[in-house]
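My current task is to audit a protein record that another person submitted. Alongside the sequence sits a line of tokens, each denoting a local backbone shape. Where you disagree with what is written, explain briefly why. This is what I was given:
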Amino acid sequence: MDLFGRQPVAQPLAARLRATTLEEYVGQEHVLGPGKPLREALEQGTLHSMIFWGPPGVGKTTLAKLLAKVTDAHFETISAVLSGVKEIRQAVEVAQQHATQYGRRTILFVDEVHRFNKSQQDAFLPYVEDGTLIFIGATTENPSFELNNALLSRARVYVLKSLDEAAMRKLVARALNEDKGLGARKLSLPEESFRILLAAADGDGRRLLNFLENAADLAEDGGEIGVELLQNLLGDSRRRFDKGGEAFYDQISALHKSVRGSSPDGALYWYARMLDGGCDPLYIARRVVRMASEDIGNADPRALTLCLNAWDVQERLGSPEGELAVAQAIVYLACAPKSNAVYTAFKAAKRDAAELGSQEVPLHLRNAPTKLMQQLGYGEEYRYAHDEPDAYAAGEDYFPEAVEPRQYYDPVPRGLELKIREKLRHLRQLDASSPRRRRQP
């Protein structure tokens, strides 16, 4: 109770259970286990600047505080959401004061560091370089895209992972048994209830403890946190899916690669995951159309039509009816013969078009709608393919005069492209033997 008779506001369960020793810290054994680089740095007291990259609720802030405690360093923290260069300078002054007066190093922890722009990120560089502070940044976004190279070159990136089931069990056990948690209330959590919490938390420890605390508020002391209570509390909790963020692009990449790898089951799983996370089905429908052209191509031209139809169904009927049509298209693509021959050929043609400059269209390929154009030779010597044997002008040349003919398109020996491959081989043999070949080797 304070001077005005007010009760202090209780900290959330997640804050009360924040690990204060390395033994209490759960998860991230891949960086903190025996013999791992960060563990060795801690044991030797040789801290370095670092970036913690991982999803929410996996212990980035807690780990930074533990590093300061274990190494007896002063801990300063700022949030990139609320701070600017002014706050950075204030933190630097505090670090300089601690170094001068107490001989202590300072860890500056910057939460959501990806929110700082380039100039703000540059403000750290001199002080990281001269050892004024040890920089620890936390981000949920890929540092390669969100942090500038100068800062990345001065910090080591540690990837923190979502908490697994074992780590979540440890958190729940601490919450239910420790006095600073919910221990005094003698609550029990059946296995089925734990499973519901585990799924809803989706690897986020803070989220798990928040859900557990909310459920405990509705349960009776000494009672059980049952399945019905949790279902009423949680409702339709969405799994992690940050549109425009790392999880978004990782999951659409997994869907695309599953289709390319001819795994209808994997593709359906990632499609369901994206829908479950709240992704707009129309976005997926558009990407599926791209997959049809990029990875199926002319091996099965029907795939593109089917995907366009699925997109149309999604627009007309919405969810959930349209989602089934998109699922049908995804399965069809995964099972269809694969060819990226058109995709590869188009990229090569675009590269040549950009690199070879503005080559003129040869006169024989130009139309001649006026007398002047006819006098200038437009359209002369053009061979109308329909008037040639098999409707093919063997030996004709369709490239600019300064450009040697290229072969961009190389059909794969699968699906319909097997037939296309055979036809093109036959036509190229006719070209090679044609007495009317425009260019001789």
